Amino acid sequence: MKNFLKNTFSRLLSIIIIFIFFLVLVTILIPKEKEIIVKENSILKIKLEENILDRTSGNPLPQINGLSLSTANNIELKEILDNIEKAKLDEKIKGIYLNISGLNAGLSNVEEIREKLLEFKESGKFIYSYSEVYTQLSYYLSSVSDSIFLNPQGMVEFNGFSAGVLFYKDLLDKIGYDVQVIRHGKFKSAVEPYMYNGMSDENRGQLEKLLNSMSDVINVGVSKQRSIKESKINEIINNLKLNSPHTCMELNFVDELRYEDEVLSFLKQKSENIIDFQEYLNVKSEKSISENKIAIIYASGAINTGEGSYNSIGSETTVQAIREAGEDEKVKAIVLRVNSPGGSALASDIILRELNLAKQKKKIVVSMGDYAASGGYYISCNADKIFANHTTLTGSIGVFGIVPNSEKLLNEKLGVYVDTVNTHKYSDIGRGNRKLTNFELDVIQESVEDIYETFITHVSEGRGMSKQEVDKIGQGRVWSGIDALEVGLIDQIGGLEDAIVSAAELSDLEDYRVVSLPKKTDEIEELLKGLTMKQNVFLKAILNVSDETIEQIKFLNSRDRIQTILPYIIDIH
């Protein structure tokens, strides 16, 4: 009894100490909001070093020495757009200073920020940019500037796009691990790494079209702002002519070669006051107090059943948000912001069902971000209006299933055997330790075909097309936003703000305010969730595999076996 009381007291004391530690940590590290006063004749400095996401966590703390305490190094796209809009209307802000080397964002989101900067310029205010190194994305964004400055020893990385797909069939063969694939859609290439050692002709063709479409968007944008012919830009890229700072200037990609202190001296001639973008986020602006609300429902990440988070779509969490918006009489319209490569076919159907119920009460407009493909398109297809950016990856109307077979790996490589007792002939189907029979494969194929039929039926009804027309542009094929517009998968090219304006117009709203769903969790709850050490260090650091790729591999090998997911994640720098 004495030991029991002693252990209980020790544990209680430990809990109290940990709790006090967290209170102190939160007090010290959570940033306090302070009133920021903008001086007359100020310049807004935009650096954008954070990861640019559609939605961020509510966790307020930074990452410390590999211990992931939060996503505080992330920033939301809408925060950036709203901040630039605020600066456009702020008489004290005379211009913007861009100092951007690399961008941690998808091309579609960069496209939206760039359009917002062009709107800013239309107000008559200036934009100047400087960098030591312009990546392809940062140069595309900075090309809107009145003048582009480059460090005299710097460089412009503008070499076009390339995509490498990792194939591991031979590796799986060597270790005796078989992946049994069932799919509908000759373009549904998410499973090709398990099947081949290189791209199929269909996959190569669609990937080439996608990359060329993205390249065209950037080249056209740069051509227009820098007055360089597109043919000249292609010639420069093909001959790697941007090989020195002086050549970059001679070819009109930059205006002057200056060190940062020289650029700052130049800016001081226009204003002594430079305010940082992060500081400006805290500057109060007049907000609408209208009772009318437009709800943005964020659907970001892979789609699965159950609960979701800021970077994953859970059917329960998303349905709850849709239902909340649908039942709120003050919410007059819904904007579904989709940034997802897809995922579980079941979860996608559950979400679409709830959206269809909400659509009976109010207008629903979809805004597609970097990805709205496969399951991401599934949940989008029946909206009143669909917006996508030029470079959004969408479509991928196809279905596949995977069932692993580890029998050879276990038996021949590891000397491990599985002996099974079944009550019925196929009780152990899908356990992954044996090869499927032809009958079992046929049953799963039938299920895949049924889901594909349901998919194209939803698209047919939502888009006013015949199922034959949908099947023709389906088969798992991925489209860029501009191509999706041509084949009828979307209604209009535009970003999140365009979708909000459209939702207001469709609902006959003259005044409204915007709210975001699902509601973010409490900051302390997010803090406790975030106290996890970084995983997958080997894959990320040694093999240079991104977190998104790791999550996709994990997703393919877990949860539902029947999935509607994008074939690949394209990471553009």
| Reported CATH architecture of the largest domain | Alpha-Beta Complex
Topology, number of strands = 24
Shape: globular
Radius of gyration: 26 Å
| Amount of beta strand | 15-25%
Number of helices: 22
CATH class of the largest domain: Alpha Beta
SSE class: alpha/beta
Q: Ends: how far apart? A: 64 Å
Oligomer type: single chain
Point out poorly predicted stretches: 62-71, 531-545
Question: What's the pLDDT, averaged over the residues?
Answer: 87
Number of domains: 2
Major beta sheet summary: 8 strands, mixed
CATH 4th-level superfamily of the largest domain: 2-enoyl-CoA Hydratase, Chain A, domain 1
Topology, pairings included?
Blueprint: H1 2-29, E1 42-46, E2 51-53, E3 67-68, E4 74-76, H2 77-89, E5 93-98, H3 107-122, E6 126-134, H4 136-142, E7 147-156, H5 169-175, E8 178-184, H6 192-195, H7 201-226, H8 230-238, H9 245-250, E9 256-257, H10 260-268, E10 273-276, H11 277-280, E11 293-300, E12 303-304, E13 313-314, H12 315-327, E14 331-340, E15 342-344, H13 345-359, E16 363-373, H14 375-378, E17 385-388, E18 393-395, E19 399-405, H15 407-413, H16 438-463, H17 467-473, E20 478-480, H18 481-487, E21 492-493, H19 496-506, E22 513-517, H20 523-530, E23 532-533, H21 537-542, H22 547-556, E24 562-565
Parallel strand pairs: 1-5, 1-10, 2-4, 5-6, 6-7, 7-9, 11-14, 11-22, 12-13, 14-16, 16-17, 16-18, 17-21
Antiparallel strand pairs: 3-23, 8-19, 15-24, 18-20, 19-24
